[in-house]
# Entry
Amino acid sequence: MKNKESCIAKLLCTSCKTEFDYKEKHTLCKSCGKVLFPIYDYEKAKETLSKKSIQSRNIYNIWRLSEIMPVTESRFQFSLGEGWTPIMHLKNSGTHLGLKNLYLKDEGQNPTGTFKSRGLCAAVSRGLELGIRDFSIPTAGNAGAALSAYATCTGTNAHVFMPEDTPKLLQSTIIALGGDLELVQGLITDAAAKCKLKTKKNNWFNVSTLKEPYRAEGKKTMAFEVVEQFNWSIPDVIVYPTGGGTGIVGMWKAFDELEIVGLIGSDRPQMVTVQSSGCAPMVKAFQEGKKLAEVWENAKTFALGLRVPVAIGDYLILKALNESNGTAVEVRDSEILVAMRKLAKIEGIMQSPEGAATYAGIEKLIDSGFVSSSDSIVLFGTGSGFIYPDFWEKTIHQREKI
Ligand SMILES: *Cc1c(COP(=O)(O)O)cnc(C)c1O
Ligand SMILES: [Zn+2]
# Structure
């Protein structure tokens, strides 16, 4: 089956509202330095985006709703089978926690084991369509693996900058997938500085979180899928482990788009951010009622995808939390650890620390009364537990009861 044509119309600054030509390469807004979003001709998209048409599509990757995705020519819609991940009803935990409608969307089943593949698939596909051959990225590991996979798949190059304490498996994965890997002393922010420098020097294209307009478009497909998997309705609560926030920002945009094209009404899920107490800039900003977050000093957590001390999209994350009547919670690393083991032992699901953080988070939301027993809740299990073999080796012999 042939994908429908993209109805992309322009790029729009999410802050100062300046418009830019989508046919040119853009990173951040040239006027104010904030994040750009692709905007589509939704009237045109509406002509073919009916529930019936979508359900008849034999396309189970991020290009399923290609009218409102940014790649215009189908030969540039690359895929390694990312997306259309299952939503599991956590029946055992539901009984355990007193939640009847607790679900987990298992993003660990994506290529390279995390949902990073969605964003990088979109960014690399669109980048190649715009003539880009060299992509660079600072990463805690997973985004680098995903970029390497899609660069290889599209015949382009991945230049990856990563903290040197990143687990060995991720390092070898990136090299195996053909990525050009450079280890950097310090945190992802240090890797970002190095990446920026080399990118300028070599005329590469930097696909850092939200610093170009297309990764969030790949991630927004998670919202498309949740809605379709819930039979065109909306869950009450979405719990998302937040680092740079591409996913939460992308999904929040996606719900508006689905409403504009008439696929859903004005209902929205309450969006919840979970972070580690060792790096919780968004939780702090949300609790203080701020519109921007401050840099988190001495960020420290073994959930490396959440070790992001400063996010360029902070204002967009906080907007999604506030507009959706959501909230933000922090969980300790020790609680994430227990949650990983609980998901494995109670549900049979091997999750990453970041994904399991949502499970630790939901326990807090029950205690605080934010969720009630009949709410439908979707946790985002953002990565597979299988990419953290050291963790399981270390903890498997611990005897305390889960
Ligand atoms: C990157 C990452 C996150 C954080 O995602 P953002 O969209 O940047 O907030 C969460 N979980 C895993 C497994 C990741 O790799
Ligand atoms: Zn602007």
